[in-house]
Write a structure and sequence with these properties.
mainly alpha; 9 strands
């Protein structure tokens, strides 16, 4: 008991400034959440906002504004407080406080912006896959946007969400939030550990975590857009702050976490050859990480191959100590991990065979990519090459070599390859992560040079907080600009339209997982866990919320379905909702499996459609007759 008291006392005294700071801010937030809305309602009722010159809006609008301002102030002050202790006071601070800042940043966005949490950028698409698996469609699931066809997309992350849904009575959107939070913690811890294998300087390790995860660029999406206009080229801005990738409803956060685990175990394998746990960790990180987020797998395999070849070369000419046994075991572990994940990879390749336009060694895209890299890590480049390069080059160690290989491999994969949609940015994310590790060490050395360097480092690091602050503003207001037409209850998401819910409830209760629906709204797979004959774009918008792409382009360009097949289904779809030509309905007979049924959904937006009773039977109408469901009569 005495030891426990002494231990707690030591923890308190070593963390007292941060504990007091957290308590103060915590109490302010509690007071704001309890009384802020009431105070704003009083101000609003008495017309104070008119006196201040603001347009008259609802109290909820002003509370949302105050909530957003309070969150940004909390992040800025907390980040400055951490930097002050690291740089000016030169105090040792716990990684816990840094992670706490990271978690506040993403969790505030999730809690305050339910529309963003649900839509995300591809939220309906990812959760649509998860619901298919959860409902019993098996793996790999069929494509819910193009019924009957295999899923031409990695389904590892949605599978994880579906399994968690079977355990917890929680919406998959909330489950994704907690998965992202755990991934953020794991990534932060292993970035710290990787940095600590390069240098034992605690401040450098903390700065590595800050730069790799939280703040590495001075430019936000807004500045990238303006600079892109200046040069007349599109610039990739999605990794201006790595932490922004932890606010997406996708496998990206888990991919980053497992990539950090892969790097850490690779270093441990060559630093401590007798540690068999590292080999297990290596196999686990590659196989599970590749399953949950496949896009990072090429980088992992490329780094592994480059590392083995370089080590064999260096050992042959006696530049480093010979470790042929370790190289063999490492190669075997990577190969075994690849074999474990190969069946999964074959299902995605066989189900997709997606033809992406790939451009290699294009000077046009190389120039764009190099400009993005320069903008993204300019402060790190400045400090690394002009201050700390001699020190880092002098550290001829295996850990440094491995992180450097990670840096240059991901840099090469991003720089010299271009995919449709600029999806090579995924390799840019890995480059930024490892650049941040080196950047933390470089900034630590820069700070110790003189007082001017200390001031410069403080200003630079503080300004690098801007991208995530701007991203928060963009995501918060972009998605909160309209009322959210959905709400969550237990494992499911419902419409705020009660009559629509009547239809969705009927579909879940009276139809099978393999039944097919023809509908003009893309949300049916999420709200009913059923599949669409063909998903179509909503009218007059560039892309449906929760997809961030035109569905028509996605089905063909990314899912690999033929234009002929797409046009055939679109013709049937169009004949039902526009031309009402009975002859087109006969195409269903060549499509519908006799074990399936096809239903036609009639919404208020297409209530004028005339349904031919020779082909369709009315099976459901909502209480207010807003929604109707017709079943196609097959030639049984």
């Amino acid at each position: 008991m005495q030891y426990l008291k002494e231990h707690i006392s030591r923890l308190y005294h070593s963390n007292r400034p941060f504990i007091i700071f957290s308590i103060i801010f915590g109490l302010i937030w509690i007071l704001f959440l309890l009384t802020g809305r009431h105070i704003i309602e009083i101000f609003h009722s008495r017309g104070y906002f008119n006196y201040l010159g603001y347009a008259v809006k609802s109290p909820e609008h002003y509370f949302d504004k105050a909530n957003f301002i309070a969150a940004r102030l909390t992040i800025i002050v907390s980040y400055a407080f951490i930097l002050w202790h690291l740089i000016w006071l030169k105090k040792r601070i716990s990684l816990f406080w840094v992670i706490l800042l990271f978690l506040f940043t993403i969790l505030w966005l999730y809690f305050s912006t339910p529309a963003f949490r649900i839509y995300s950028y591809h939220g309906f698409y990812r959760i649509g896959i998860a619901y298919r698996i959860f409902a019993g469609a098996g793996v790999p699931p069929t494509d819910f946007m193009f019924a009957g066809e295999p899923m031409a997309s990695p389904w590892g992350y949605p599978w994880l969400i579906a399994m968690l849904m079977k355990i917890f009575d929680v919406s998959p959107y909330w489950l994704a939030v907690w998965v992202n939070a755990i991934a953020l913690i794991i990534a932060s811890i292993f970035v710290y550990r990787i940095s600590s294998l390069l240098t034992k300087n605690h401040r450098a390790n903390i700065l590595s975590v800050i730069l790799a995860i939280f703040a590495i660029s001075c430019f936000s999406i807004q500045e990238y857009y303006k600079i892109g206009l200046l040069f007349g080229v599109p610039l990739e801005s999605r990794v201006s702050a790595t932490i922004s990738k932890f606010t997406n409803l996708a496998g990206h956060p888990l991919g980053l976490a497992f990539y950090c685990l892969f790097l850490y175990n690779t270093i441990k394998v060559f630093n401590y050859p007798a540690n068999w746990k590292s080999y297990f960790g290596l196999i686990f990180s590659i196989s599970v990480g590749g399953f949950l987020y496949m896009p990072f797998l090429p980088a992992v395999l490329g780094i592994s191959a480059f590392l083995v070849l370089l080590l064999l070369f260096l050992m042959k000419f006696a530049y480093i100590q010979k470790q042929y046994r370790t190289v063999l075991l490492f190669s075997g572990s990577v190969f075994f991990a690849f074999l474990l994940i190969l069946p999964y990879l074959l299902t995605t390749i066989r189900s997709g065979s997606v033809e992406k336009a790939v451009t290699f060694f294009s000077f046009y895209y190389l120039g764009i990519h190099l400009l993005v890299i320069l903008l993204n890590i300019f402060p790190v480049i400045f400090v690394l090459f002009f201050v700390a390069r001699k020190f880092i080059i002098a550290q001829k160690t295996i850990p440094l070599l491995i992180v450097a290989i990670s840096l240059f491999t991901s840099l090469g994969m991003y720089s010299f390859v271009h995919f449709n949609g600029f999806i090579e940015y995924k390799f840019l994310a890995l480059f930024v992560l490892t650049a941040g590790i080196f950047g933390g060490i470089a900034f630590d050395l820069f700070i110790d040079k003189n007082k001017l360097c200390m001031i410069t480092a403080f200003i630079l690091l503080l300004s690098m907080n801007w991208p995530i602050l701007y991203n928060m503003k963009r995501e918060h207001y972009m998605y909160n600009s309209h009322p959210l037409p959905y709400f969550e209850k237990g494992k499911y998401i419902y419409s705020t339209d009660s009559q629509a819910n009547e239809m969705y409830d009927w579909i879940r209760a009276n139809t099978g997982i393999n039944d097919v629906f023809v509908d003009t709204d893309y949300v049916l797979p999420v709200l009913t866990q059923r599949q669409l004959y063909i998903a179509v774009d909503l009218p007059d918008i560039q892309s449906p919320p929760g997809f961030e792409y035109k569905v028509a382009d996605f089905v063909v360009a990314r899912h690999g379905h033929s234009n002929q097949e797409y046009e055939q289904r679109w013709s049937v779809f169009n004949s039902i909702y526009q031309s009402n030509k009975i002859s087109s309905f006969l195409d269903f007979d060549n499509y519908v499996n006799k074990a399936q049924s096809v239903f036609i959904v009639i919404r208020p937006t297409n209530s004028g459609v005339e349904i031919d009773r020779d082909f369709f039977e009315l099976v459901f109408s909502s209480s207010g007759e807003k929604y109707f469901l017709y079943k196609y009569l097959t030639n049984k």
